[in-house]
Amino acid sequence: FMHIQDPASQRLTWNKPPKSVLVIKKIRDASLLQPFKELCMFLTEGKNMIVYVEKKVLEDPAISGDENFAAVTKKFCTFREDLDDISNRVDFIICLGGDGTLLYASSLFQESVPPVMAFHLGSLGFLTPFKFDMYQSQVNQIIEGNTAIVLRSRLKVRVLKENWEKKARVDEKGIILTNGDIESSRKAMQYQVLNEVVVDRGPSSYLSNVDLFLDGHLITTVQGDGVIVSTPTGSTAYAVAAGASMIHPNVPAIMITPICPHSLSFRPIVVPAGVELKIMLSRDARNTAWVSFDGRKRQEICHGDSITITTSCFPVPSICFRDPVNDWFESLAECLHWNVRKKQNYLSSEDEEF
């Protein structure tokens, strides 16, 4: 018999107590300065933890100019995005901000991701279940372990450029590259995506025209503004605005949602996690297409280029406030006011006569 895992059975437990934590703060947001300072003082002085912070966060004058906070910042380990590898140095992550901070945390880890505790201090709180007013007891609980987690699947995306060799022959210093260098550059065009891959028509006024393959078979051609390939986590982001169903993050699936399709019968579809999707410009497409990954790294897709998408082996373990099911319905109610409507009045026996 097939065993279906109860989502509530996934727990965070530590082999040894966590020693290091990465704190991610949305930059240029004055409302987060006080929570950030309080949290960092609590972690370094109260909990004696090694705190990692991104260099650009500390360049904020409101932080660098605070003499009282300087003693704490001296203890920080700093890093720079795309330059320093912190993949094996951090036990867990704390995010301060909106859902974007969790997407950003995901982008910093191209392989396994430490557990993420996300505080709701931004405009949307789908992925950020914790309220900051009780942060000390909640952080203590995570350090002790045994809290519920939800494993949010990611998409592994590879972009192959047909005319890469012509573009890659000379690097930015003018050095001519060998074929070996070109091959390694080609492999480097890989992304881990938590919400969605969006292929759209970009600035063109023509419909986009892209072919969609599933495990090597041409499934359909998408004619319209584009197509969204999303995880269940991304089902409540751009996909829901384009008419998709909302899928709980514990469901192993990939969603394909057309954006304004020029066909009445093209409904969003859900396919099993693990299938390989491939998107290419159709032969008769009048214009190129554009692709972005969780809203970042936007680039042009030309004839012969391909985007390959499958389920990643490296999910994002999100720490739950209560449990995976409760947290999700809470976020639907809070963020989307899901199924909120005025109640009908109760019918009395006199009303029934009419």
Going by CATH, the homologous superfamily of the largest domain would be Probable inorganic polyphosphate/atp-NAD kinase, domain 1
* Quantity of strands, as a count: 20
Order of helices and strands: EEHEHHHEEHEHEEHHEEEEEHEEEEEEEH
What is the number of domains?
Answer: 2
- How far apart the termini lie comes to 55 Å
Q: Which architecture of the largest domain per CATH?
A: 3-Layer(aba) Sandwich
Query: What kind of sheet is the major sheet?
Result: 6 strands, antiparallel
Number of helices: 10
What's the Cα radius of gyration? 23 Å
Overall residue-averaged pLDDT value? 90
**CATH fold-type name of the largest domain:** Rossmann fold
Write the layout of secondary structure elements.
Blueprint: E1 11-12, E2 20-25, H1 33-46, E3 50-54, H2 55-58, H3 61-64, H4 67-73, E4 77-79, E5 92-97, H5 99-108, E6 116-120, H6 135-144, E7 147-152, E8 155-160, H7 164-168, H8 179-188, E9 190-193, E10 196-200, E11 208-214, E12 217-224, E13 226-230, H9 238-241, E14 253-259, E15 269-272, E16 277-281, E17 289-293, E18 296-301, E19 306-311, E20 316-319, H10 324-336
Parallel strand pairs: 2-3, 2-5, 3-4, 5-6
Antiparallel strand pairs: 1-7, 7-20, 8-9, 8-19, 10-13, 10-17, 11-12, 11-16, 13-14, 14-15, 16-19, 17-18
Task: Describe, in plain words, how this protein is organized in 3D.
- The chain starts with 10 loop residues before the first strand and ends in an 18-residue tail after the last helix.
- It has 2 domains: 8-153 and 315-336, Rossmann fold (3-Layer(aba) Sandwich), CATH 3.40.50.10330; 155-311, Probable inorganic polyphosphate/atp-NAD kinase, domain 2 (Tumour Suppressor Smad4), CATH 2.60.200.30.
- It contains 10 helices and 20 strands.
- Mean pLDDT is 90; it is low at 166-170 and 184-188.
- The strands form 4 sheets. A 6-stranded antiparallel sheet has the order 9-8-19-16-11-12. Strands 15-14-13-10-17-18 form a 6-stranded antiparallel sheet, with no helix packed on it. The protein has a 5-stranded parallel sheet with strand order 4-3-2-5-6, sandwiched between helices.
- It is an alpha+beta fold and 354 residues long.
- β11 and β12 form a beta hairpin.
- Helices cover 23% and strands 30% of the residues.
- The protein has helices at 33-46, 55-58, 61-64, 67-73, 99-108, 135-144, 164-168, 179-188, 238-241, 324-336; strands at residues 11-12, 20-25, 50-54, 77-79, 92-97, 116-120, 147-152, 155-160, 190-193, 196-200, 208-214, 217-224, 226-230, 253-259, 269-272, 277-281, 289-293, 296-301, 306-311, 316-319.
- The relative contact order is 0.14.
